[in-house]
Specification:
- The chain is mostly helical.
- The protein has helices at residues 2-21, 26-40, 46-58, 63-102, 110-137, 142-161, 167-194.
- The protein is globular and about 75 Å long.
- It starts with a helix and ends with a helix.
- The relative contact order is 0.10.
Length: 195
């Protein structure tokens, strides 16, 4: 019982630290969550982190909160999920609430406005870092690489030409293609076994 309470407390503190010191939203937080949960704490493997990221992106809600909830549940069950989620949410809530109460023109303060310019650049780097880490550890098979490249090129074209197309639709299309190819592959394997 004490060990479970320690795990829950450790989950809360870890995700509170992630929530307090990470700017830029869920995508920027992915590399930090991976650093803590996979690298330092060894709570999950890199493959699980990739699966969590895909699931967290395709389910409702912010990606960082979904990741925290999954990791917490995996380590300490229901209460682990609750306290991990609270840990990642509370720091941001307190900061935003404090800003809204005490500072009406927060971004009009010159120092704050200039610091946010630097934070924007850092957020971009964190997002690229998360993407590069995932690509580096992705299996080097033709099909996953082809889907990744097609998705990347399609999203790039959508951005360049300002087409109205949801990234969620892109993920659903990639998932359907993946399932179809997997089904065909399994069918071919079964047919070969029969012969």
């Amino acid at each position: 019982m004490i060990e479970k309470k320690n795990k829950i407390f450790n989950l809360f503190l870890t995700f509170a630290k992630i929530g307090l010191f990470t700017f830029g939203g869920g995508y920027a937080m992915i590399s930090v969550i991976e650093n803590y949960c996979v690298g330092k704490k060894k709570w999950i493997t890199h493959d699980e982190m990739m699966n969590i990221t895909v699931i967290a992106e395709s389910t409702p809600g912010p990606i960082a909160i979904n990741c925290a909830t999954f990791v917490g549940y995996r380590i300490a069950g229901f209460w682990g999920a609750v306290f991990s989620t609270l840990g990642v949410v509370i720091p941001s809530f307190i900061i935003i609430f404090s800003i809204s109460v005490f500072l009406n023109n927060f971004l009009d303060i010159v120092i704050i406005a200039n610091s946010f310019k630097g934070i924007k650049a850092a957020v971009g780097i964190l997002i690229v870092d998360a993407a590069v880490n995932m690509m580096r550890k992705m299996p080097r098979r033709l099909f996953p690489v082809a889907i990744m490249l097609c998705s990347f090129i399609t999203m790039l074209l959508i951005d360049i030409f300002s087409w109205r197309f949801s990234s969620i639709s892109m993920m659903l299309i990639a998932a359907v293609i993946s399932l179809m190819c997997y089904s065909i592959e399994e069918y071919v394997k079964k047919e070969r076994k029969r012969k």
